[in-house]
Design brief:
The protein is of the alpha+beta class and 582 residues long. The chain contains ten helices and 21 strands. Among the domains are: 92 residues, no CATH class; 84 residues, no CATH class; 151 residues, Sandwich (Immunoglobulin-like), CATH 2.60.40. Strands 1, 2, 3, 4, 5 and 6 form a six-stranded antiparallel β-sheet that branches. Strands 14, 16, 17, 19, 20 and 21 form a six-stranded mixed β-sheet that branches. The two termini are 21 Å apart.
Amino acid sequence: MQAGIDPARAPARSPRSNRTVVLWIITAGALLLAGFVGTHLFQTLATYRWQKTECTILSSRITDYRGDNRKAYMLEVRYEYNVGGKTFQSTSYNDTHGLAGSPQNWNDYSDAARALERYPAGSRAVCFVHPSDPTRTALARADIWVHLFMLGLTFMLWLMLKVFYVPGKPPTPECPAIPIIRPKANPRLKEANQSAFVALITLPMGLFIGWWCIAKPLADSRKARGWVETPCTILSSELRSSHTRFGPTYSPNILFAYEFGGREFRANKFEFSDDLETKAAGVQRTLAKYPVAQKTVCFVNPADPTDAVLDRGFKLSFSLTILVPLFMIFAGTMFLGIAVALRLGVAVPAWLLGHAKLEPAAPLPHHTTQAEAGPVTLRAKTASKARMLASAAGMVICFGFVGYMLWDTARDWRQTGELEFSILNLFYTCLAGVFGLAALTEWWKFFSPQPALHLNQPTLALGSEIDLAWTISGNVTRLRDVTFSLEGREEVIRNEEEMTAVGRQQKLVTLKQIFHNQPLAVPTEEETLRSGTVRVQLPTGLMPTFDGHRNKIIWSVAVRGDVRYGSKMDHEFRLRVLPMEA
């Protein structure tokens, strides 16, 4: 081949591999995490062997609990029990040695009210007593399924790190560094398995989080349409805040009282979606609608009067609880589609796989000596109405989001006199702005001058002469330094290694080298640049078009130039060049 690229050459590889070290580090981290969760699991399982004992509830009430920079509602309960002829009293609701014990304080007042209904003063209940320490008791035991779920998640995390970040085995004479691709082997089987593995993790997690954050509140909102509208009185209206590593979050805490079935109840559920605001001004606007002592209406569940809500509607917002599950579902669906496409042999864009494009070999019929007849028109890929519409839609969505965030920030600034923003909101806005600019650039390309080539026949032969006609649509006065050239290029796809943080990793790369560059005599004046014809003499003694598995010979006409108020014009029109006629 003319380009002189050696497809069999591979970079030298050190005989020492970090495979064992990285595997041990990942395994040690997984074992530490599993040991931490397993220890708490055994402590939780121990409570299931505690002795069941009848007890009497002496007193129970709901009190305010302030901790972890938040306000919640706690169940204070005191009960009496008898062990070995001795009477003991305790206020322990659960055993705190477990990783996920039964909660004793709740953000939702209705949850605390339901716990109070289970343990009213003067009632008989069952408590669990430690067999060797009668002073250690619990009214409720922790759920072991949370611990089992975390153990399974730890194993899946270890497996994912092992698949993606552990280097391959070092090469040996029996197993060379560059694998031999057999004709019947599927070179994308590993990519298909990896994509399926990622989809197996992200898609179920995205669906679960999406169900909890989106589907469940939506279903509760639709179910609440049959709840009873009941008058209520606002008892307190407070701003609830909590601090995270991404900044503070805020939510309304509106406690209201209502009567249902001749009894008085209290609740503080404002809406079904537990969406946290990153700016206090938005929550303060909500609190202003529900001042203390105001008479309003709430909606009560007739099957459970402790369950009530002020606003039974459903609202979507650009928050982390909404964007994360949607992103995970989108990523999981995309990886699942990639895995299925690779299994079925469907072509997948190389940028989705993270390496060079590797297609099945499809060599041209080199025995053909006569060029096919019939005119053909080659158009630029950017001149597509579908791309323009997709770019316009992306531009409207991204800039619309940026405009909404700026308008919301300005509204909060006028209301409070302070400029509030969080790291997450700033990240969302900047990310949407970047995507919006990319969509604008792609959309603006449609209005740039677009070249098109016209050939008398779809296939050409080396050594022949052709009349190449061109037309350029759009405003050609924006073009500068336009050039036409006939190019021949060789491409070789091969395995190369790179050193990463976890050792040497192999990837497919494409090496390109131009072996023929023939400028074409095209006039550059504005009057003649819009359309014209040039006679092209194809060279002899070179390779024709070839489309192999890892080796390609590509012939094309390159049209390049500068565009005022736009990106550079760089189009490649590929030609089908046959061997020289006999």
